[in-house]
């Protein structure tokens, strides 16, 4: 068991005062070395997504910040099919290898995202190898198996958990009509879980989706999870992406889904948390990746900084979310924000391109925001 934070602080402060530092300085030192990951160590992992830019430029400042503050990392893009395996026979290992080295080097929990998804795939994934027309069922199964065996195999023992299948369920309508479903039927999910498990039996395997507060969607997911467990399909967790707004979904809606998944016998991971503070228009309250809403100035009201009142609302929102997560700390393994600082969030370009959004815990200068302090304070005061 890691030493409790209180003891850690007491001990480091004592050591510092021995070194004749002022009390104030000692406190700052002790707190400075205590990132969110440490504060929440006894509760759940605290993660972030690592962008391609950070990996390409090997951005020291960002990597140091991540190592200090977080205990888990997710590949934001570099392990997606279209990036790591852009065409049959071609693998791009450079960025994922860097991420794996970084996570191993810092003893961080690494999330592989994602093995099977309908978006950001290789261009030719669903085409017949002979060219023209759709790929056959057998050929797609072969491709899928080879992809999973190669990727999971390369990082066996290094990736702690995989988002095996991403976004296979529609809002209130059951399975999403993706090429995966059309060509293979719902069986593609369990195939994915079995192959990943065969290659790395120690890896935790998750189903991940957005809008998991939607009761119809959540019930459908909980049902197939139960069915998988009954039939011995190796699934260990459900990922709730949690791309949320300031006042929706409600805490009660999120809570109901956490309970549903926990009751279905799996752990819950909050996998892609961010809080969109910008005004919406029809379609903009979704994380459906194909949604596009045109830019207009009224949808981008704060290009030069978030007003103080909005900062406070954002902090209160993060606080209520983390209070909820703490309430279910036994059922929640990890809470991951989808990026670290506001300059790099996908929310600057989704679903409206070219906006200035403020959904994360660190600002554009990589400084902790009020939202960060609110999340930290829940532990500091406890
Ligand atoms: C997003 C990335 O953040 C963007 O950089 C990329 O352009 C598109 O995908 N759900 C998911 C993530 O599971 O993979 C998506 O990530 C966000 C929605």
TrEMBL record:
<dbReference type="GO" id="GO:0004553">
    <property type="term" value="F:hydrolase activity, hydrolyzing O-glycosyl compounds"/>
</dbReference>
<dbReference type="InterPro" id="IPR017853">
    <property type="entry name" value="GH"/>
</dbReference>
<keyword id="KW-0326">Glycosidase</keyword>
<keyword id="KW-0378">Hydrolase</keyword>
<dbReference type="Pfam" id="PF00331">
    <property type="entry name" value="Glyco_hydro_10"/>
</dbReference>
<keyword id="KW-0858">Xylan degradation</keyword>
<keyword id="KW-0624">Polysaccharide degradation</keyword>
<feature type="domain" description="GH10">
    <location>
        <begin position="30"/>
        <end position="378"/>
    </location>
</feature>
<dbReference type="InterPro" id="IPR006311">
    <property type="entry name" value="TAT_signal"/>
</dbReference>
<keyword id="KW-0119">Carbohydrate metabolism</keyword>
<protein>
    <submittedName>
        <fullName>1,4-beta-xylanase</fullName>
    </submittedName>
</protein>
<dbReference type="InterPro" id="IPR001000">
    <property type="entry name" value="GH10_dom"/>
</dbReference>
<dbReference type="InterPro" id="IPR031158">
    <property type="entry name" value="GH10_AS"/>
</dbReference>
<dbReference type="InterPro" id="IPR044846">
    <property type="entry name" value="GH10"/>
</dbReference>
<dbReference type="GO" id="GO:0045493">
    <property type="term" value="P:xylan catabolic process"/>
</dbReference>
